[in-house]
């Protein structure tokens, strides 16, 4: 069956779509096409109707090196089960919404951290389907508490394998912010990825230009930008059965 990796964080804007699309692209390149020559060893799934991964994939079009699926509403949730049971798909990466940015009272009234509505239902199904999780976190203070709440209320209770990945670190700012984020993660006892996704303008322009990390123009910056996602793909054992 396909391995299902969900990319989650309560905080919006921490790069869930960027991580989903680019780690799917690097995984697809490493695995290569199927014996039939098709790019369906890997699939990216958007479970966020307002997420950028679907818009991004549409702009890439025929040059997309993996398959893409959209879960927009409750009646689409069966797509997750179909993909998980697929014998041709080896790895699926699921982009998730910032639906957890709900008022605290709404989440409490629902009796769980998901709140109510179709987005919450989709998220519950995503997590029930997932084999493991990636939690992106920016190296900045505003990202800490939402990530901590995501970990305590969602990730840790599930008991699934996971990695917290520091994303969008700008080396030009020095290492202080990076080290502070790493120390925060370790102080909470989280499993922190060795890979750090560095900030590059080529990443921020990629969606507008309709490209993915494996299709960047060949130059030094592009090579460095690609390197991070290849390292992450290797670290999570992309295409394999997952971390235990």
Set out the fold topology.
Layout (H helix, E strand, L loop, with lengths): L2 E5 L8 H16 L10 E5 L5 H9 L6 E4 L7 H7 L6 E5 L8 H7 L7 H12 L2 E6 L3 H18 L3 E8 L6 H12 L9 E2 L2 H9 L10 H16 L9
Parallel strand pairs: 1-4, 1-5, 2-3, 2-4, 5-6, 6-7
Helix pairs in contact: 1-2, 1-9, 2-8
What does this entry look like structurally?
Helices cover 43% and strands 14% of the residues. The chain is α/β, with parallel strands linked by helices. Strand 6, helix 7 and strand 7 form a beta-alpha-beta unit. Helix 1 packs across helix 2, helix 1 crosses helix 9 and helix 2 crosses helix 8. The chain has a single domain, classed as Rossmann fold (3-Layer(aba) Sandwich). Strands 3-2-4-1-5-6-7 form a 7-stranded parallel beta sheet, with helices on both faces.
For this structure, what is the CATH homologous superfamily? Answer: P-loop containing nucleotide triphosphate hydrolases
> Shape from CA axes?
globular
* Distance linking N and C termini: 16 Å
The third-level CATH topology is Rossmann fold
Helices, by number, come to 9
Kindly report the oligomeric state of this protein: single chain
The overall average pLDDT, rounded, is 85
User: How many DSSP-defined strands?
Assistant: 7
Unreliable stretches covering 5 or more consecutive residues = none
Strand content: 5-15%
């Amino acid at each position: 069956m396909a391995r299902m990796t969900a990319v989650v964080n309560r905080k919006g804007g921490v790069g869930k779509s960027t991580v989903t699309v680019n780690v799917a692209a690097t995984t697809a390149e490493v695995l290569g096409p199927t014996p039939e020559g098709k790019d369906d060893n890997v699939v990216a799934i958007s479970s966020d109707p307002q997420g950028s991964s679907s818009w991004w994939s549409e702009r890439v079009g025929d040059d997309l090196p993996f398959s893409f699926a959209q879960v927009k509403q409750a009646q689409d949730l069966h797509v997750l089960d179909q993909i998980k049971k697929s014998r041709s798909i080896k790895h699926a990466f699921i982009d998730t919404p910032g639906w957890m940015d709900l008022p605290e009272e709404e989440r409490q009234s629902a009796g769980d951290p998901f709140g109510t509505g179709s987005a919450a239902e989709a998220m519950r199904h995503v997590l029930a389907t997932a084999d493991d999780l990636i939690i992106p976190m920016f190296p900045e203070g505003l990202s800490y508490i939402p990530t901590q709440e995501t970990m305590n209320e969602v990730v840790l209770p599930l008991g699934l394998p996971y990695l917290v990945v520091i994303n969008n670190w700008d080396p030009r700012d020095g290492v202080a912010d990076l080290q502070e984020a790493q120390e925060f993660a370790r102080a909470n006892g989280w499993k922190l990825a060795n890979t750090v996704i560095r900030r590059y303008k080529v990443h921020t322009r990629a969606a507008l230009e309709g490209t993915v990390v494996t299709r960047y123009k060949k130059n030094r910056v592009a090579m460095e930008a690609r390197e991070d996602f290849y390292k992450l793909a290797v670290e999570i054992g992309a295409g394999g059965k997952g971390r235990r």
